[in-house]
Amino acid sequence: MRPAIFLIPICAAVIAAPSPSTANIEILYPKDLSVFPPEITAPLFIWRDPTPATLWRITINFDGGRPPLKVETAGDPPTVGGIDPRAVSPANQPPVLPPSYAGSRSWRPGAALWDEIKKHSPGRAVSLNIAGFSSRQDRPLSSASVRLLTSRDPVGAPIFYRDVPLMPSETKKGTIKPLAPDAIRLIQWRLRDISKPESRVVLEGLPTCANCHSFSRDGKTLGMDLDGPDSDKGTYAITPVAPQTSIRREDVMTWNSFPGRPPGSRTIGFMSQISPDGQHVVSTVNEEVYTANFRDYRFLQVFYPARGILAVYSRATGQIEPLPGASDPRYVHTNAVWSPDGKSLVFARAEARDPYPPGGRMAESANDPNELPVRYDLFRIPFNGGKGGRAEPIRGASGNGRSNSFP
Fold first, then answer.
1. Phi and psi angles of residue 215, each rounded to the nearest 5 degrees, phi first
2. CA 62 to CA 117: how far, in whole Å?
């Protein structure tokens, strides 16, 4: 299986032109002309009706002369999903609906109806009209329409992700650590098949933090950051994916074995990523990271490197070597990702600097002007079997007056 992520728009407004006798319904979700993967479960339609309507009639109109389908709904208000009560703390608050959903109504198609909509919408839009009615009359008080399409390409794989409680705690300067030690056990690793209504927990109760992860292109190998023994935050696991996946001692290496590490320093191996063939891992080493942790649970922290070079670990040799062309200490090289064929990498680069310059003040919230200003450009470099080459800036993602990252 190959992990995949499919993103769909979260919120937009679609307003149909009303007839002289009807008012506008504002459709908050989904966005007009949203494209859904063919195996996904039915979305929740959300709208706001300014009239005193108490019943909504939904008409699904198909292209090509197929007869429309009609359903009626009481339009229950949308609700917040369940939460883990163990994650409630004085430092956060239970989730609530966003203000934009105040007074809104919702409806979710049944499985059979949703399958019918998807069946007739690959490459051509299906239109859903929502009309509001009063129980005392048959003429609609309000209406709006939204168009949907279904992709011909399936996601084709489950989504592997972490479920992390938003429980900020005091941490020390320069430490990437949003959670208190006793909250780490609440982190859950989940697997979500988007054709199913729920995800399932596949890993929980970890005694240490496991974080950034990636898979080989064939889905057979997992690479994952670990906080290892003796506070070695450079510990990294590489393990085969199986119905029962185990991380054994022999599956673990540490970026702190990098021979080019300055004496007395430690490295964490920042933003490591396994190669498409599962035989190499690229990472930022010798890093110095600017980190600011906040007590606001809505935005816990920022962290990004101000120094560091790219290094590559070979599973065949067990050695870590700097990547020529991305190892100049005058620059910070970070967030490297592989091309699908494994022949090149794209990474973010900026001039290296002190993450905590003398006299500087720490940021107290996200987008605080006191955050360390770093402007990254994206570069492409050949892998060349670990021999690297000349790094070239990518047009449109470098020298554009913006900070470019996460290629």
1. -125, 150
2. 8
